[in-house]
Amino acid sequence: MTKTNRSLEEIVSAVLQVAVEDVVDEATPETLKSWNSLNHVHVVLAIEEVFGVRFSAEEISSVRRIADFRRVLRKSGITS
Amino acid sequence: MSFLGATLRWREISNSQRPGQLNVAVLASFTLDPLVPYLGVELDKAGLAARISVGPYQQIVQECLSDRSSTAQLAPQVLIAWARFEELWRGQPVPLTDPISRYRESAMEQLEILIEACRRWRSTLLYVLPAIPELSPLGIGDALNPTGVFSTATQIRETLRTRLIQEQGALILDAERILRDLGSERSYDERLNALAHIPYTNLFFERVAVGLTRVIAMDRRAAKKVVVVDADNTLWGGVVGEVGTAGIDLHSNGPGEAYRSFQTFLLQLRRAGMLLALCSKNAEQDVWEVFARTDMILRREHLSAWRINWQPKAQNIEEIARELGLGLDSCVFIDDDPVQIGEVQRAHAEVACLRMPADPCNWMAMVKDTDVFDRFPPTPEDGVRAHHQDAEKQRANLMRVSQTLDEYRTSLNVEVSICPAAETDVERLTQLIQKTNQFNLNCRRRSRREVCELLQNDRFLIRLVRATDRFGDYGIVGAFVIWSESDRATLDTFLLSCRAIGRGIEDAMLACCQELIGSPRQLLATLEECPRNEPARMFFARYGLSSCGALTRLEAAAWPGHIKRKLATHEDVERGDPGVSMRE
């Protein structure tokens, strides 16, 4: 299990420029307005770097809400 | 730097709203938004606070054709354009048997549109020369195909490069160079390309940002002028004071060979226009004995200055700079000893210091990763700069034997010709404008693009000054620019290279300015105080400009009697206006 200084919520909050409290499991591009397709890639780039993982294209496009990031991270053995 | 780190830092920089921002626009054939934070951070590190806007994806031509496009509205100072072959060739089969012209046209058409837009918007074009695509239907057999992917892309790249070089002021970053450094595995990201048309990795974008910043900085700053090297364990293996001349390692098999190849590199720098100097803590005799060895590649005559003594190196470097008439910010210092480097860096933060690696075989990494050797291709003046230093020594000898300053000046047999600047002079004129510190009216710096604009504006009278004397040709050593109005004329720029100061050439230049504008028009100028332009201030004080910052009329100057006015050569006349140099 990998430990990092930043939590998933903190990374998403930093890239999307939203409050950490708003980054809840149920949050989606509809509830977080800055979560557009380009920022989606930026969030992925940041998560991959911080947790030292690499998602497949399918995993990246399967993410529809914050909980999905947690799910794909778990597949790489990371509890976020 | 991580992508997240760069993103946060860039946000911080963007929000700080510092003045003097460089306006940069980026147009590409793919999504390159991840480049922006890296580029912003790198430019900031280089002291170039920037605003960066990315144009709509895949809209290079559309953005450039209209002066109402979002990119045009920004009036960018620098336009970065990056079209990959993969997108340029989209919709047609990859090169296999068709003639190269089929692929070349789209790239060249797009480049012409970019060049035209940059002329209209007065932007500096920074073109990213696209990397060679990696995929070929022939696999390794592509190498045997003269109309294959590699061959076609290579030939188009050279056509693009040739065209860009003709366009004064345009800049190039070669994506192939970065790809080669990093390797394709670490450069391409096919996942992100499929998902978001982002073909490259973060790491690649980070390196591109460094490269773009280096090109922009190279365009806006003076190149370094002298490399000061240590001797023991930098030029050769071992300490001569301990092992003696014979014990020094310069053997052709082993680490000695690495020192020899480093010496060869120093000679390449010299050919490119840099001066070489030596700074060593040793007995002078010992060092020259090593230089006399036949396996030394660097010879004593290649050195323009040296200090071999036990003084602190910071002091020696200061003396070397003074002897060569250069500022400390023009100096690069290379030493293997971190203590020496630390001392020099503490005393002179403006000296660029490089540490020779403990294993000399790694010297190439030291010079490859640094920007201190970045410079434009040499002008004719660069190629002969080191010879100028030799002539300078002969002049110093003449000065010693002359009874008076007048006698010295007369015996130099100086000849001066002053000609209008042509398009082909842009490189040298820009170099003079960017580098001249001591004899400079106002140290007004201009980029190559700005110099091109000057040349296209008839209201500016621009003249270049060429001088020779009995010891050699100084080349183009000076320039002046006059802003000409119907009732008066203002000196915009007036500069002379430090190696030509004090011979009356400056008086000849001023006399020429006044002839050019013709009476009764007055010649005005505002003298500015700049860090090292005391020689210029002293000179202009003689012609009535006693205080800085005020627009003042210049008193009449006369062409000095000891300077011969050289007729313009046939070549000068060919270039257009024979100018004042024809008038005897």
Count up the helices of chain A: 4
CA-atom Rg of chain A in angstroms: 11 Å
Helix content of chain A: 40-55%
Instruction: Please count the helical segments of chain B.
Output: 25
Secondary-structure content class of chain A: mainly alpha
CATH superfamily label of chain A: ACP-like
How many domains of chain A? The number is 1
Percent strand of chain B: 15-25%
Under CATH at level 1, the class of chain A stands as Mainly Alpha
Shape of chain A: globular
Distance between the termini of chain A: 10 Å
Instruction: Report the uncertain regions of chain A.
Output: none
Largest sheet of chain B: 8 strands, mixed
pLDDT averaged over residues of chain A: 91
Order of helices and strands of chain A: HHHH
Question: Can you tell me about this structure?
Answer:
The complex is a heterodimer of chains A (80) and B (584). Chain A has 80 residues and is mainly alpha-helical. Chain A contains four helices and no strands. Chain A has one domain (3-75): ACP-like (Non-ribosomal Peptide Synthetase Peptidyl Carrier Protein, Chain A), CATH 1.10.1200. In chain A, helix 1 runs antiparallel to helix 2. Chain A is globular. The mean pLDDT of chain A is 91. By secondary structure, chain B is an alpha/beta fold. Chain B contains 25 helices and 18 strands. In chain B, helix 16 (338-347) links the parallel strand 9 and strand 10. The longest helix of chain B has 21 residues, at 101-121. Chain B is globular. The model of chain B is unreliable at 570-584 (pLDDT under 50). Classes of the chains: A mainly alpha (80), B alpha/beta (584). Chains A and B meet through helix 1, helix 2 and helix 3 of A and helix 1 and helix 10 of B.
